[in-house]
Known about the structure:
Blueprint: H1 2-9, H2 20-36, E1 47-53, H3 58-71, E2 88-93, H4 104-113, H5 144-150, E3 154-162, H6 166-169, H7 188-192, H8 198-204, E4 211-215, H9 246-253, E5 259-262, H10 265-270, E6 278-282, H11 302-313, E7 320-326, H12 329-334, H13 338-358, E8 364-370, E9 373-374, E10 376-378, E11 406-411, E12 416-417, E13 420-421, E14 438-441, E15 447-448, E16 452-457, E17 466-469, H14 473-481, H15 493-496, H16 502-510
Parallel strand pairs: 1-7, 1-8, 2-17, 3-4, 3-7, 4-6, 5-6, 11-14
Antiparallel strand pairs: 2-16, 8-16, 9-15, 10-11, 12-13
The protein binds zinc ion (ZN).
Active site: 104
Cofactor: Mg(2+); Zn(2+)
InterPro entries: Alkaline_phosphatase, Alkaline_phosphatase_AS, Alkaline_phosphatase_core_sf
Amino acid sequence: HVLSVFILVSCRCSEKEKNPLYWNSAAQHTLQNALSLQELNKNIAKNLILFLGDGMGISTVTAARILKGQLSGHSGEETQLEMDKFPYVALAKTYNTNAQVADSAGTATAYLCGVKANEGTVGVSAAAIRGQCNTTYGNEVTSILKWAKDAGKSVGIVTTTRVNHATPSAAYAHCVNREWLSDAEMPLEALQEGCKDIALQLFENIPNIDVIMGGGRKYMFPSNMSDVEYPGEHKHMGTRRDGRNLVEEWKDRFKNHVTYYVWNRKDLLAINPNNVDSMLGLFEPGDFPYDLERNVETDPSLTEMVETAIKILRKNPQGFYLLVEGGRIDHGHHEGKAKQALHETVELDRAIGRAGLLTSIHDTLTVVTADHSHVFNFGGYTPRGNPIFGLAPMLSDVDQKPFTSILYGNGPGYKIVNGVRENVSAVDYKQNNYQAQSAVPLRLETHGGEDVAIFSKGPMAHLLHGVKEQNYIPHVMAYAACIGQNRLHCRSFSNRGPQFPASLAKAMLLC
Ligand SMILES: [Zn+2]
């Protein structure tokens, strides 16, 4: 067949890969590593970290792996992401209670609160109805961040989106509408019925979230208050109709405690985490820009935020819980901008690597997952080492035109020129904001419905295996740390002989 001949001729595998010894010894090495996992890590997890790639489906993980390799001059397919090095992988079923294809709010409730919920709602059970304030009461569900705080751990949230966006908000808020970011976004009726906006809940529900870093500054300030970074720009001004300044209120709250509010990268990098008890970093009025377009003067990278967060949180002898969101993978895909989405994923992976250097698998359970996938894919019988943003090696045998390997099932990249599919060789399909072609035109590309991966390492990571409901994740993490619903088994820890600090043992006996 013509196609297979092409693939054989164009094989770009290196010389070593032609030798069976290479593959045999690599596989034997992998086998030895797998055998070593027969001795399970049943330690008590002092620390818990959840890395959430918003919209990071499995096709995104694979494409980001190839991109990461190609960015350092390799063909890419053989590269290992940091998350690829985690010993355990499971699949999560992502559907919401009322949706086959999920959104980020209902899923966040699942992997943070342990309960599946309706789309568009955060921190409430499926008995609550989206947008109906009075269905909030009595249907609140709490998150693992709160369980950790209640157990005496330090807790933190780091994201590249607004800190009151869907993913982080399920960690602290109970809200029937993910869009109620401040009171300005809420209907009068909901305010009259006593519902609170998400920004307010960030500071009021859990008394002290030790580290909060991300965007979303404008939701914290009174309406028409000018933004510190973009003075006079109307769209960046404060939004709050209640006139409250939540940042000043936050600063005033802690009298005996070293707190820092920062809004730019320079100030973030200047602080000494050893001297900080609590930190609030709000680096943008809304979401961060994409990492490829980040202003390196004003905005920290996700990796820099994660490093600072861990250094602040780990000072607590009782450990910490940290939620890290790579939030703009999702936005890149919605816009059909695969290059933005994949660079966001590579940056999330870099943050995962940095966290690995700052923690130990002996006392830290780290989980990497996604809330849902996207209708993003790549294919087209590309040869080994084909640029991930490049073309498939043949023309369509229907319309006789080239096509990019990366394509979307739907989205804004649908392009018909003079009644026929656009010829991509006439456009710069390698630029940062190129929108890959899609089969169906939509202003925003949609989420995908297939399962997502759960990568895990550290104490009890082996409990994340097989195909599981997404709401199983915080149950495992809480079990591993002896917090939340699963404290009792820790009383018999002496039978298991876990290694943990004496301070933690004392805390366990008290709980
Ligand atoms: Zn989305």
